Amino acid sequence: MKKIKSMSYEELEEYIVSHGEKRFRAKQVFEWLHKGVRSFDEMRNLPAALREKLKTDADPEVIETETVQISKKDGTRKYLFRLSDGQMVESVLMKYEYGNTICISTQAGCRMGCAFCASCKGGLIRNLTAGEILDQVLAVSADIGRRVDNVVVMGVGEPFDNYEELKSFIRLIHDSRGFNMSWRSITVSTCGLVPYIKRFAEDFPQVTLAVSLHAPNEKIRNELMPVNRKYDYSKLLSACREYVRITNKRITFEYILIEGKNDSVKQAAELAERLKGILCHINLIPFNGVEGKSFAAAKRRAAEEFRDVLKKNGFEATIRRELGSDIDGACGQLRSRKNQSQN
Ligand code: SAH
After folding, report:
1. Do 52 and 174 fall within a single domain?
2. Which of 34, 41, 95, 175 gets the highest tally of CB atoms within 10 A of its CB?
3. Looking at ligand 1, which residue's alpha carbon is closest to its atom 25?
């Protein structure tokens, strides 16, 4: 079956024409797919014969909603989606003053092995296709009855470990004939796969890049993030400096504050020293408890002191507001709980 939602407009045209159909049919199919219809039968302006042909030859890459949890505190909606082969992925919709933001997944599982993260339990199962990544946005838009305003690629998986599908997804969601999302409304977060940082800067200079740093130095980053043994801290920071040079854009650094591990004022000063001269925003993230991990969140006071040291050093730094804390907020929690209950 041809994965039809993952196709670019041009690929879809080629596909439709190769079936002896008129070119404008591709436009119709593309528009229906990107409006989020769930079957070829709903594509009402297509001739019945074409709909039948598509049913036997093309996969619309539709994901099924397994559960939706809605936070009573802040309205955050957490979705568990089932892919066509039974794999589960998660998306979260958060409401902010400036619109709503969806956090989406790019892989079922993850092979990066970060010590604090629930997504890597069980390793990487498989990459998502561009169509499956896109369908999370379409399914949530349909559920809430309005457009999703922003996308952050910060759900389960390492987006740069699935770079080609990520690239197709970003081009698809930006396509003005489809969802038409602006570059600026998209953020991609990486744990630091260095070679892709430059590629991303060149491919998508207007999309925001977030880099998960989580440590003030080599030693602590090695302990928390195995990826650091392959692409070390200084290589990562050089790539970040290059990113800013190429794109002229601010980079976002994410830094989880873990009590007694990376949250002292001394470590804040060390971090400030290392990041000197990089145009950036530092997003301090309260650690979200994960079953089976012994880490604890930094105290509010420690987080504020950490932020203040960064600010005093001229950095823009904020503590991320916690949303959805009553509904399995952190990455991969819902999916891993579901897997456990199935075992
Ligand atoms: N693989 C990518 C994107 C997915 S994770 C990356 O590493 O950036 C998105 C963010 O959530 C990352 O900064 C990640 O480190 C963070 N995260 C993972 N587990 C967390 C937890 N238990 N509490 C708080 N943040 C967490």
Report:
1. no
2. 34
3. 287
Is pTM, for the whole model, over 0.90?
A: yes
149 and 26 in a common domain:
no
**Is residue 110 annotated as part of the catalytic site, yes or no?**
no
Residues flanking ligand 1, CB < 6 Å: 114, 116-117, 154, 158, 189-191, 212, 254, 256, 285, 287-288, 290, 330-331
Per-residue pLDDT of the chain (343 residues; tens, 9 = 90+): 999 999 999 999 999 999 999 999 999 999 999 999 999 999 999 999 999 999 999 999 999 999 999 999 888 999 999 999 999 999 999 988 889 999 999 999 999 999 999 988 889 999 999 999 999 999 999 999 999 999 999 999 999 999 999 999 999 999 999 999 999 999 999 999 999 999 999 999 999 999 999 999 999 999 999 999 999 999 999 999 999 999 999 999 999 999 999 999 999 999 999 999 999 999 999 898 887 778 999 999 999 999 999 999 999 999 988 777 777 655 555 566 555 444 3
**Residues 70 and 40 occupy one common structural domain:** no
Q: Which residues contact 87 (CB under 8 A, 6 or more apart)?
A: 108, 125, 126
Region of 86 please: left (phi>0), alpha (psi -120 to 50) or beta.
left
**Domain finish residue from 10, 31, 59:** 59
Q: Looking at residue 145, which CATH number applies to its domain? A: 3.20.20.70
Residue in 162, 189, 211, 220 to alter for ligand 1 test, most ligand atoms within 8 A of Cβ: 189
- 317: which 2 tokens? 């730094």
Cα dihedral 272, 277, 278, 282 in deg (nearest 10): 30
Find the catalytic residue in 13, 61, 90, 254: 90
Q: Can 331 be counted among the known catalytic residues?
A: yes
Q: Which residues, 6 or more positions from 180, have their beta carbon under 8 angstroms from its beta carbon?
A: 174
- How close is the Cα of 117 to the center of ligand 1, in Å? 6
Domain total in the chain: 2
Which residue has a Cα nearest atom 9 of ligand 1?
A: 154
- What domain range is 102 assigned to? 64-342
